[in-house]
Amino acid sequence: MTEKNLKARGMRWDISDFYASAADEHVEADLKTAVAQAENFATTYRGKIAENDLQAETLHSAIIALEAIYTKTYKPAIYAFLAFTANTADDAFKALYARCQEVMAQVQNLLLFFELEVQQIPPARFERLLASGKLDLYRHYLEGVRLYTPYTLSEKEEQVINKKDLSGKHALVNLYTEYTAAFAWQLEVEGEMKTLTGEEVRNLLRRPEPDLRARAKRAYDGRYGENEIIFTNVFNAMLKDHALEMEMRSYKSPMAPAHLRNRLAPEIVETMMAVTTAHNHLAQEYYALKARLLSMPKVRGCDLIAPVSQKREVVTYDEGKHLVLQAFENFSPEFRRLAQQMFDRRWIDAEVRPNKRGGAYCEGTVPGHHPYILMSYNDDIDNVYTLAHELGHALHDFLAGRKQTIFNYQPPLVAAETASVFAEMLLTRKLLAEVKERELRIAILTGKLEDLFATIHTQNYYTRFEFDAHLQGAKERLSATQLCQLWTARRTEMYGDAVDFLPEQKWYWAAIPHFIHTRFYCYAYTFGALLVLALFNRFEEEGKSFIPRYIELLETGGSDSPENMIKKMGFDIRRAEFWESGLRVMQAFLEELKTLVQ
Ligand SMILES: [Zn+2]
């Protein structure tokens, strides 16, 4: 028997098609050219875009020039970023990355006037420019730039808000981030007292020992309760700040800016959320079943992601690679071909080694250049999922890159995880088709279902809590007790009485950074995952004829609104039925799990 290659030994990427090294003279030359081009752009176009006689051709050439400048600026920055994350101890790349960020800021400042002038074009003239047909490729981008125009205040007012935010909103975000990042926990693990970070404590919830999980969760959430003065004040200040800004800018709902950012009509999000809430019973049925798998009378709030199986199968990088490639091949030979290239041409860095950044990412680079993947492959099925996920992103980048330019390339936030989560579904499908052993099938199904509940139903209840808090917080200051009550009410709406939560868990609202960093971010997760399930359901029903439409969807990149992109595939996301079809995939997984557990 030959020895297995573990931890993807030797699987390093080759990024020399960007530059030869940090010292490569082309790096500095590109950065200098980018700045010179940006200066030239400013001289040519400043004051011209908002002019009365602006022609569509002029606007079009300006955009083409801008895209060229951004491409030139991004390339060295992406190169430095890739190299630095692959070896964070390399000071040359750290310095180069800092230099690239400076240049990017310089270039952005020089180009800032362009979008401001686009915003100033009066509506009637803007419509005429679009009607010329010469700007069709950039319609979505230009409309995006002008999206906030109706809510923008005078220049003076905007300046005052920006300055006061430094000591207001931004200061509170910094306080929250730094304060919580400094948290450390003392916990006894395997008979030894340990000092742990937040991430380490959260990881204990995946441990098989029920008592350890309970101690970890009590300590983690309890810490937020011990600091209730800080979190209640920060939370209330953020609610008030948002309410005041909504009023000044005449937004109709606290969620309105998030809908604009996502380019979604409010009714669509409302329908999606209502359908999700109407399917909370799936989570309740699941956790009742999980109690039986864990041989407990009832699942506790600290057991939601507890393992149901002690088995840990070794899956080497080569085995993982073949699993993913076959899963893609079953869907479309083109998917396999594109993914295969990523391996063959060494665009993936999977080796586990010191000084490599944690986590995984796919860097899409720029249209016309291929993507790169960085991960640390640790020889289990979770890592195979990560590989499938990142390769899904890479496919999206390849496909969008061959049809789109730099401004239209990035998918919208709510569709950014479409290809990656779809790729994970393809892997699940393959595993379920092949794995016969009962315990492994249970592990695959519980893993996938918990992942989906966390992304769909949980984020839905987070959003409902956030909305309640904003509505009530705009009217009065909320006490810690009120915040905890709003939180537990929405939590109960999701879990019913299927789960016994620990008393400390009423504080968990204070532990979610999204509420502080970006208002109403969470529903993007619900949207993205349900969208994939709905598409996947259609694929299972329809078979091969679905594939070209799916490829076309990925090729659209970010050149249209989510609603239009999906309409082109023949779906209406305004209808509840669309979202319900996604939840049917979860229902089917749950039914299969029920028969296995009987
Ligand atoms: Zn992703």
Biggest sheet features: 3 strands, mixed
Termini separation (Å)?
39 Å
Shape: globular
Radius of gyration: 25 Å
Beta-strand residue percentage: under 5%
Strands in their spatial order, largest beta sheet: 4-6-5
**How confident is the prediction overall: mean pLDDT?**
95
| CATH architecture call of the domain at 227-313 and 414-598 | Orthogonal Bundle
* CATH H-tier superfamily of the domain at 227-313 and 414-598: Oligoendopeptidase f, C-terminal domain
The CATH class of the domain at 227-313 and 414-598 turns out to be Mainly Alpha
User: From the helix content, strand content and strand pairing, which structural class follows?
Assistant: mainly alpha
The helix fraction, in percent, is 55-70%
CATH topology description of the domain at 227-313 and 414-598: Neurolysin, domain 3
Number of helical runs? 26
Q: How many runs of DSSP E, i.e. beta strands?
A: 7
Bound molecules: zinc ion
User: Spans of 5+ residues with little confidence (pLDDT < 50)?
Assistant: none
Summarize the structure.
This protein has helices at residues 25-45, 56-86, 91-120, 123-131, 139-146, 155-167, 169-181, 198-203, 210-226, 228-249, 256-262, 266-278, 280-293, 317-331, 333-344, 381-403, 406-409, 418-434, 438-455, 457-475, 480-495, 513-517, 523-542, 546-555, 562-567, 576-597, and strands at 185-189, 192-196, 299-300, 348-349, 361-363, 372-374, 499-500. It is mainly α.
